[in-house]
Amino acid sequence: MTTTHDVFNQPTPFEHINTFQADPQLQHWLKQFSADWDQTKATQLAKQLGDTLSQPDWIEKGFLVNQFTPELHSHDRYGHRLDLVKYHPAYHELMSLAIKHNIHALPWQQPQAGVHVTRMALNYLYNQNEAGSACPLTMTFACVPSLQQSKALSDHWLPGVLSSEYDPSNQPMQQKKGLTVGMAMTEKQGGTDVRANTSTAQFDGAGLWGDRYLLTGHKWFCSAPMSDAFLTLAQTEAGLSCFLMPRWCADGSKNTVHIQRLKNKLGNRSNASSEIEFTQAEGWLIGEPGRGVPTIIQMVALTRYDCMIGSTALMRQAITQAIHHVRQRQVMGQLLADQPLMQNVLADLCLEWAGALALTARMAHALDHQEDPKQQMYVRLMTAVGKFWICKQAQSVIGEAAECMGGAGYIEDHVLSRLYREAPVNSIWEGSGNVQCLDVLRALNKTPECWEVIKENLQQASGNNPAYDQHLEQFLHHANPTQLHDYDARSWVSQLAVLMQAATLLQHGEPFWAVAFCQARLGRPVYGPFGQLPEGIDVASLLQETLPVD
User: Fold this and answer.
1) Considering 110, 276, 389, 515, which has the largest number of Cβ atoms within 10 A of its Cβ?
2) pLDDT (tens digit per residue) in 7-18
3) Are residues 278 and 306 in the same domain?
4) Nearest to 320 by CA among 159, 128, 163
5) Residue 491 per-residue DSSP state
6) pTM
């Protein structure tokens, strides 16, 4: 067969590049905040996972689980209810790899300072390969503090939740080697307003796992319906309460939790999101009756944090793909990587990612030290700030990275299209942008000490950069968060997010990145498209330090 052309001026596949070793910033933050955790062990775990996920067969698994999406099998051929979600085999391989690396449980398995930072690094690496399957990992990780409020539940369930074995079988928890836990809060009439939920729970006596209730109602969104149990909210005589609703009852019978349909979503396609109904389903009380929101919010706070990790990871994957592309692609006889405007755009994206990673690592550090009330308050406020800002910025970063690659970044054969579809979900679930910003104002008004802690963190970075000092002075002079109106919440939270990123880089980051970030982000408008960096920033070095190997 006669060919019409040769293939040239195309980049090589982005494979066999260890995503941990090729990320000096991740290595820096892991070292900076490792504390008492075994740093050698943390590095080995991250290096091992980064190497595995860089192999072509594991990269392909990420594509396969998004191409062959979950399927609902509601009944068997004879008409019996199954309520079974089936996945491509690659999904189970990815889940097994993640759970083997304890992304779902490491801080609870080995609680010591630095372990949250290690888990952050592992989760960040995993999300770069396949973000959809990270959802059940996140919820399983985040459910632990809530479960610990019930001794009976924690005694029976935590050994399976903390297991390093992945067991996808559909059978009672007593027969399984490992367990996963999902969440089912949202109802169609309430959405974010969970207090408008109409699902009910009736007390049915004490049992093996504590106080047993019978739940009746529906959930408009139930994440990861293949999980072994779900944390959910339902109305009792005392008010909205939190329950563990298992797929299989304590006596080994199938619980009456029925999957109505799977959601057909823009992205997050490898993860099954569903609508469920339940009639007299078995549920076990967690916390006190009528205190459902404060009980489950512990889980929500951690899932929000994982949204920060996920969005930062998506940024990283998009940027490295774009850098790899432009280093090998010529336009008009010149490599794209050598063209000044392309360098301006990509370096700007690198700084956005660097700020996101710094704030995410700092949050992990705070989670490692929650015995300190100041770190508790930092987590309380900055989780919402980081979730809003990082998840919002990720969408713009990925879109711009795709544009840097031209048509190659828009086709389904490339990972960029998947990243682009995936990015919005982190801004939406666990509370949209408005919810996060209003939560910040609510926290500041309810606990004014939070603002004093945040101010202290910001002021500790003073004296290291003139642009930062000037920007901070103006912010503190004009900003009194206790007097803010809801209308202004986004503006104020955005300013705080950028300042805290700069403060973290100045205090704990590498000077080169801190100076460049302050020069790019402070003292000038942050609005408009990327690629408007001022003169004087070493853009070539930023790109080289972002992806030093190729």
Assistant:
1) 389
2) 999 999 999 999
3) no
4) 128
5) H
6) 0.97
